[in-house]
Amino acid sequence: MPNPLSSTPLPATVPVCPVRGSVIYPTMVQHIDASRALSIKAIEAALNGDKVILIVSQRDKDVDDPQGADLYDVGTACNVLRVRKNPDGTVQMLVAATARVRVTRYERGEYLTAAVEALETEPGDPVELRALTRELREKFETVAQGGRIGAESVQAIQSKEDPGEMADHIAFHLDFKLEDKQAVLEAVRLTDRVRRVLTLLDTEQEVQAVQARIRAQVKEEIDKNQREYYLREQMKVIQKELQGGDDGDEGDEAEAFRAKIEALGLPAEVKKEVDREVNRLARMHPDAAEASVIRTYLTWMTELPWNVRSEDRLDVGEAAHILDEDHYGLEKVKDRVLEFLAVRRLRRERAERGELDAAEVNKGPILVFTGPPGVGKTSIAQSIAKSLGRKYVRIALGGARDESDIRGHRRTYIGAMPGRIIQGIRTAGTKNPVILLDEVDKLGTSYQGDPSAALLEVLDPAQNQHFTDHYLGVPFDLSEVMFIATANYPEQIPPALMDRMEVIEFSSYIEQEKLEIAKRYLLPRQLTANGLKANQLSFTDAALERLISHYTREAGVRNLEREIGTVARKVARRIATGEVKRVKVTDKELDRYLGQPRFVPESEGQEDKVGVSTGMFYTPVGGDILFVETSVMPGKGLVLTGQLGDVMKESARAALTYAKSNAERFHLDRDRIENSEIHIHVPAGAIPKEGPSAGGAMVTSLISALSGIPVRHDVAMTGEMTLTGRYLPIGGLKEKVLGARRAGIKHIIMPKANEGDLRDIPLHLRSSMRFHPCETVDQVLDVALVGGLKALETPRGPAAGAAETAPPPAKRRTSRRSPGASA
Ligand SMILES: Nc1ncnc2c1ncn2[C@@H]1O[C@H](COP(=O)(O)OP(=O)(O)OP(=O)(O)O)[C@@H](O)[C@H]1O
Ligand SMILES: [Mg+2]
Fold first, then answer.
1. Active-site pick, 549, 693, 701, 707
2. Helix, strand, or coil here: 43?
3. Does 16 share its domain with 139?
4. In terms of domains, do 629 and 765 share one?
């Protein structure tokens, strides 16, 4: 390139055009845009004069109207080659840089001028220069490979012969700081200049290396994500191809499961298992048998409430209100539930203050409700759930015989399913429902393992946090579930289970209670059920009482509710056909709706009989009375019939011995006793009458038969006797009394030792019956026989005792009886 400087000598003063943020070096030809008046004026001055202008950098590019002090002292003298005015008033100028110059003085008029002197380049040590130059070429080449400079510029720079020029161009093209570029301009000695640029290149090289490393890391990260994405996409395509190019919904199926699973917030252990199955599903042909197994499994897993719970209502007052709304009486049960709530509430408050472990809040006893059928065990459990604000699920355990009923089948079985507990949880849809384990006493066992063992794990607070259903294969936390169990026969609950539970006994209802329940709960419920309004059907109290005593005989109120329902249905029909507008049912009208009474109270219309006494028994389904009949006929020995258990047989022998040893006093004919067949019969269906409590009834029946003195029909007795005539205590007094009362009995003979049990019997009932606590068999006979002990101890005419006594057959009773009774 011709050096224009050689042709134009440098004037002593030149106009100055300040530039911001860049430095130009000699031998370069550059466009410069000027918009500031200061610069435009300077350009005009140069054009009008020597066409030489000084390009110099501002120390601070933000200064708009720079003075001399704002500019560096070293700049570049340029020849102005061309100037073009833009329409917006700015000016574009093409310059050729000619020389490094030092400014000795700036002056400011309309524009800046500078007094300048040329800076002559010094070569420095030639050997050093050569070495530096070689180094410069090499380093530049590596830096250029970083790709920051355009290929053309790289070539132009590499073709430079002059090391100074080369250094200048490198400095110009690379992204150095302004001070560094200015320093290169100011470096007059070549060796210095090259060394400076080498240092800059070094730094640049390092920066590039770091940059490359960062880029690589980022790329790796992206690659990993992308790889998975690509693979999955590829798999979808492959699957689509295999299925003959149809829509490929199946690939999305796995995706859909993935999305659901993400939303569940599963524990890590569970998540791992589920993820594994989803991945298997994604790889599988959708029609494969295995795929449908996995699909069912994943559906189960995604539908379980892993993290869904309902908020407990721990307001004790509110809960009490709800319990009362649904159930009459049952005070013990309601109290227990309210205590439970109160404890739970205190615990939660303590846990909130950090005084108690959160896991402890849920710990509580497992309640088991025991008692006869129809007394509200199942239905109050439902109210408990309602009062707690929890979901309610009932799990019927009757007939559960295998472990898998509770814990499910392993997935390897065809048609495998989770067990009843997990099924219940899914039905509830929350992880803290009230689960009613209905009829725990009906659990069976089989060779397939014992379901009660699995239930143990379910109920044990120490273990149920990790309850593992075979089907799920992963633990599900049951610790927040409130379990309630029910049973008719608590003795039949496996002992290990019973051990973990707190028993709450429900007893039979007496008539008054049934009346109240019928009026307040059953009738309104049946009205609603049959579409009747409250004013369309009513019962008189007498009608309900008759309904209770003549149409039902039960411990609970289930049949009562059914009978009321029957009446309501029939009334509904009459109203619907327009026959009547409203109906009030009286006791006289009951048979119009319900037909003949099904039960007649035992004592009603009955008379005092010789040889027939009334005993009492109870079963878990309620108490009742039974008759003991004795007949004395020619023959020999003691004959016992009716389903008499061993204990009852012993009682019969004891009674006979007592009669013999007191024959004198009671005026009984000893010879006749020896020479007769004495037949004792307990005509009470299929009850194996175990349990030593019919001794009193037997001895009364026997002595009545032998003496010919009738037994009072309104007296029922319970109690066991010794050979010496003491009267001993028995169990189940309350249920027996309630049963006797249902049968219309007015007098109860009971062992004195059982007097304490009377406290359990409601007061109004106690006052409507008479209780005769006895310590001896004599006292029993005194109450039970017509005329009392006196009649027995008074000598009778031979006819009285000698007559063959065969009692008329006692009226058979139709009450329901279950096995397991004790008399
Ligand atoms: N105290 C009561 N107040 C109101 N209704 C009652 C009461 N006791 C029982 N019932 C009603 O009687 C019916 C039968 O009760 P439930 O089914 O709970 O009996 P259960 O004790 O579970 O009997 P089982 O042992 O046969 O299962 C239900 O409709 C229930 O609402
Ligand atoms: Mg029930």
1. 693
2. helix
3. no
4. yes
